[in-house]
Structures are given as C-alpha cells and as structure tokens.
Amino acid sequence: MSAGQPPLPSQPAKPQVKALNCPQCGGAITLRSFQQAVTVVCENCHSILDAKDPALKILQQFQTITGELKPLIPLGTRGKLRGTDYEVIGFQRRSIESDGVRYDWHEYLLFNPYKGFRYLSEYQGHWNDITVCKNLPTVRSSLVSTANYLGENFRHFQTADATTGYVIGEFPWQVRVGERAVVSDYVHPPHLLSCEQSSGETTWSVGEYIYPQEIWKAFNLPGQPPEPVGIFENQPAPSTVNLKTVWAAFIALSIFLLGLMAFTDMVASKDQVFTASYRLAPGPVKGEPSFVTDVFELKGRDSNVEVKTSANVSNSWIYLNYALISQDTGRAWDFGREVSYYYGRDSDGSWTEGSRRDRVIVPAVPAGHYYLRIEPESDASHPDISYTVTVTRDVPVFSFYGWAFLALLVPAALISLKALSFERQRWAESDHPILQSSG
After folding, report:
1. How far lies 81's CA from each of 234, 255, 273, 332, in Å?
2. What CATH number does domain 270-395 carry, 2.50.20.10, 3.40.718.10, 3.40.30.10, 2.60.120.380?
3. pLDDT given for residue 71 in this prediction
C-alpha cells in the first residue's frame, strides 16, 4: 500500500506560493508548489481543478463523505523529516477490497522546493516513508515472485486493485476520485517496494517503515499518535536478532560441546577395579541377606565411581541396597538400585518395561581401599536370580553436556518460534499466507 505515482523531477524550482479562488464556490485556494502543481482540490466544495489552467478549470467534483475525513497531519503543516524540511501539501484516501471487506489507507504528499516530493502512507497506525524509485527494479516470476532493487531482494506480498476515494490539497499529477490502479507490493522488512499500474503507466516506489512517534516529533503534532493495529507487511520484527546468527552460534557451540565430550572421554581412565557375580536363591529370604565383597583399590586423584548391575530378571525384579565403604577411613556412600524387566502382549501388541541393566555414579570418591556391602531383596516368590556387579573408576559423565545442549537449544528455539509467529501473522493478510499445521 504505497504512493506509487508517475516519476517527478528530483530538483524542482523553488515554488511561488500563490493565492487563487475556486471558480465553483469562490473559496480561497493556495498553491504551495505552483510550478509543480498539476491539480488542486478545493477544500470547501471538493472540486478538483486544473492547476495549469489560469482559470482553474474544473476537472471533477465529488461528494463529501459523512463526518468529513480529516488528515492526521493537516495540510500546510511543516516539519523536519530525517533532516529535511517538508510541507504537507496533499492528502488522499485509497482502498482495496478483499473478500467483500474494504481496507483503507491514507497518503500524505510532502514537498520541499529543493528535494522535491516524497510520501507518507498510513494504515491502521502503521507508517511508511516513500519515494519514487530512481531505477527500474528487476522482477523474477516464480511460485512467489521476487523483485530486486539496488541489490536488495524483495518478496511478493500481495497484488490488489486500489481505488482513490478522497483527495484534498494539490498534486503534481492528474488526480481523480474513483481512479483505479493495480498495486503490487514486495517486502523486505523494514523496506517496501511497490509497483503501480494505471492508464498504461507503471510506477515503482520504495518505502521504509517509520514509527509513528517519529512522525509526531518531526511535525510537532499534538497528543499521541494512534496505536498501530496488528502487524503490517513490512513492519520490522520486534527482535533484532538475526535467526541465521542465532542458529550459527548454536551449531558452533554444539560442535564445541561435542569436542569437549570427546576430550572428556579420551582423558577418563575408565579403570575397572572390581567385578563379581552373585546369586539370589528362589523363595523367601532367610536370615540376614547382606554380605561384603572383596577389597579393591581406587588409585589416583579424587574421581567418580561407577557401579553397574546386570541381572537375569524376567517378569521379576531385584532391589540391591549398596554401601561403598572405605576400609581406610570407614566412610560410607549408601544408595539403592532396582533392576526389573517385564514383557508381554496385549491388544496393542508386544510391550516391554524396565531393563536388565542399571548404573549409578558416585561422585568425587578419594583414592584408597574400598569394598561394597550388598543387601539383595525381591518378592517372596521370586525365581532364581543371578546378578553381576562391576565397579569402574573415573568414567565420563555426559549428562552435563545434555543439559548444556538443552540450555543452548531452548533459547534458539524460543526465539525462532517467536519470529515464526510474528511472520505468520505478517503473511496472514498476503497472497502467500504461511499455513499452520493441522496437527
């Protein structure tokens, strides 16, 4: 939705402000860009006049709308927009219709005697600063057409028939109420590229999204600007983070984690210091079932100890109360582990639950001489159960890396989901909406 009008001189002569009178109603008319004005609209009777005719020939008259439309920036307002002084000399309301609903937007024509013309467009509180393209963009037609302007690639957003419904002020082209044009918008936020075709003429304009607070400050307008509604086609995403940068950083840090995991695995001694097999006889346990293993030595620096248990359980379980005890100091590390394995078949097919293997890590165990106290338990009708206990010194633990990976993945995923949600809302009103999955 932009003001793509016929190309205009970029260095117009200094205007001569001139007061005239409307031939229809006698109302005063002031031309602020006299040499450049082609048409001027009487604010009193809404006659569109030929500004090039000394007699101000009437070209068209149109009905005033109910509750007359008032520009947010009144005609004649002067301000400094992005370092250049401009005066608002023209205003028009244009509209498109989609699925029986009319969508209106407004265009303000700005003029500077040395810089020429530029436009401000406004749609539901969203503003764009627009100028006519100095070069012809290159369009590539495909499933979704693209356009390139000055090395920047734009994606086709929508094409619609635009109608001019209201005009006021002066214009450097033949403006008419009811005039129709085919407008095609291409976006690359925060920029907007627009092609307008009417009466055999094609005009390209390029715009940049501008926040309403900047407009109000530039023209010293009273009050606060209307809050933007929804998401506009070239509105910048709220996050300034580039998703490619986010995922590139995620991949780089993930590769670093993998390298660190490989290094940790290489330097870990993985020294097996004890292994033995035992048997829990069937039937109820009689007497004190606990026993102690042979003594084994842990050498070197303080490091973790892995205790593995494997048992031939089948639709049964065994619970082992362990205590890793230092023969030198009497210090003990108590822990319990269950090994259970069940399987069967039901209406959904075969199923299994549990595992015949278990492992536990005891962290930061000092060097010394140790033994295990083991107390096995099972149900009263348990079958004969054989189990093996293996103790390994200094094993790599990768759970930390898993948590670190999640700590990297979750922010990247959340940023991406937020960006995708924003883009889905942006493109919902386009000719190429991003479809949500039905699941």
Report:
1. 20, 48, 79, 77
2. 2.60.120.380
3. 93
